[in-house]
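Can you please make up a protein's amino acid sequence together with its fold in C-alpha cell form to help me picture the idea?
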Amino acid sequence: MRKLIILGLLAATVAPSVASAQSYGEARRSERNLREEQRDLRQAQRYGDRRDVREERREVRDARQEAREDWRDYRRSHRNVYRGGNWRAPFRYSQWNAGVQLRPAYYNSRYYIADPYRYRLPRPGVNQRWVRHYNDVLLVNVRNGRVIQVHRGFFW
C-alpha cells in the first residue's frame, strides 16, 4: 500500500512538468506555423489571384488564433513566471493607450524588461523597449517616448 501511495505522489509531481513541456512545444509549433502562413500569404499576394489571397488570409487568421490560444495556455500553466510580485513605482498608475507619448520618467532603463523572451514577448525593434508599468507591459519607442503596443494585466 505504501508503494502505491508513493507511486501516486510521484506521478502527481511528474505529470504537470510533462504537460507544461508539451504546452511550450505546441506554442512554438503554432508560432512557426503562423510564420509559414504569413510567408504563403505574401507569395499569394505577389503571384496569386484574389481567391488565393482570400484563402491565405483566412489561414493566417486561423494560425494567429491558434498561436494566441497556445500562448494563453502556456501563460496559464506557468503562472509563477507572470506573477506580479511587489513592484512599486514613484508615480501613480495610469492606463496608457497606444499612440500616447510618455515622459522619460515612465520608461527609463529602471523599468525595462531585461529578458522579454522569458515572458514570450516578441523581440522589440530598433529603439524600442518593453517597459513594465505596474501590471501592464508597454512597448515604447525610447527615442520619442511614444507607446506602440499595450498588454494590460500582463502580470497576475
